[in-house]
Amino acid sequence: MSRHKARKNMRSVFRWHRYVGLAAVLFVIMLALTGIMLNHTEGLALDQIYIKSDLLLDWYGIRPPHIDTAFLTANHAIIEVEDRVYLDHRPLTNAASSLRGAVEANGLVATVVDDAILLLTPQGEVVEKLGSVEGVPLGLRCIGRTQDGNVVVKAAHGLYTTDEDFLGWRRYRGKAPIVWSRPQLAPRALAQELIHHYRTHILSLERVMLDLHSGRILGSWGVLVVDVAALLFCFLGFSGCWLWFERSRKRKAHMRKCLRAPRS
Amino acid sequence: MHRIALFLLLLATSILAHATQVFQQPKNFLQQTFPKGVPEPEVVWIIGDIKKDVTKIMGHDLDQLRVRYWMKHGRSAWILEEIGKEKPITTGIVVNKGKIEQIEVLIYRESRGWEVHYGFFTNQFKGAELGADSQLDRPIDNISGATLSVNALTKLARLALYLSNHVAP
To answer: What pLDDT does A258 receive?
Structure first.
């Protein structure tokens, strides 16, 4: 290869190295920042920070939820919003879905969720989750109270009642009429508040960081863009090494030439 | 034909691996523990200093204000749950005079790590008591591939010992 051609090649690689470097700079900054944040997910509690921006929520297709069921007791509203259950304004951590009723008794709120009864304080703390281990009959359908204050549940094999501490369950053989907890319309203001709470407590900052880092925030095209950026980084690595090696080789050759030249 | 058989075998293995495995119904565990009649349940409230200690033992808030237990002649039975990786492992623990008499995995819901229900693992807990800093007085050997389930059972053993020491010091 002639010296002229070698110099032309080097200039060409240097030009590409510069342009690709400029094109990659935004990706480098974005990947570095998101990478640092993801490395410290727990410390920064990224999974506890939720995105509230309507723009991002819309981008992710997170629409306002539908309120499925609400049960109202004398002092509380127990409301199912998609896969969450709320006691008034507070989401219940132990509850999944399939809210079937709620009654107040002895200062507690007994809420039937799936095949269990959640005993709650008026502040929404879980006293105990009562399931079959605790003697709750299988196939819970609804919960109610008699006029004399006994809690009664309708299960797959009939009616059952409990003691005032909810420690044991036995067949209900009373004749007193039972007022069953029935689904009702949720109070409008509370419903709006819960819809907003639900929507703004789904998408975590960790999810967004992960999607930014992988490019998935732009869908399958975004992943390809990040793939291309990764290839550009590889090119920059190789071209940088090659340019450094070539320059170093030339410098050494020049030094040798200078040393060999006769001194006048 | 062989391919179909292999496919069915793999399918069955896959279903079994993800299914909830009930090794013993909690009710049966209690009847076995108290053959002359299961006592009425009692509760211990997880509040104040107990709450702090329980949170330290479990590594997280227990998320419930009371835990029930069954007690007769100083022996107490506890049915406790802790998540291994994703789903709760229901475990029955019998404590007698501050030592673990028996620990049984009753319901296992995780897809991996079910080996913790075998006697070769649970026998390690027999006679264990609570040492300094609410740790067990002996090391519990791990099972490779079931580390999270082993950790969950170890925490539950510590919790049962701590709570039984509280209700029957």
So the answer is: 84
Sheet bearing A178-180, strands edge to edge: A169-171, A158-162, A151-155, A142-146, A178-180
Nearest partner of A143 among A130, A125, A128, A124, judged by Cα: A130
Residue B27: closest CA among chain A residues belongs to which residue? A133
pTM score, whole prediction: 0.72
User: Over the stretch A216-251, which tens digit does the pLDDT of each residue have?
Assistant: 999 889 999 999 999 999 999 999 998 898 888 888
Distances A173 to A61, A159, A161 between C-alpha atoms, Å? 51, 8, 9
In order of A57, A65, A98, A178, B42, the CA distances from A202 in angstroms are 9, 11, 19, 39, 38
Is residue B86 within 8 angstroms of chain A, CB to CB? no
Q: Give the C-alpha separation, B113 to B84, whole Å.
A: 9
- Here the ipTM equals 0.77
C-alpha R_g of chain B? 17
Residue A79 and residue A86 in contact, taking contact as beta carbons nearer than 8 Å: yes
Mutation pick from B20, B66, B69 vs chain A, by most beta carbons of A within 10 Å, is B66
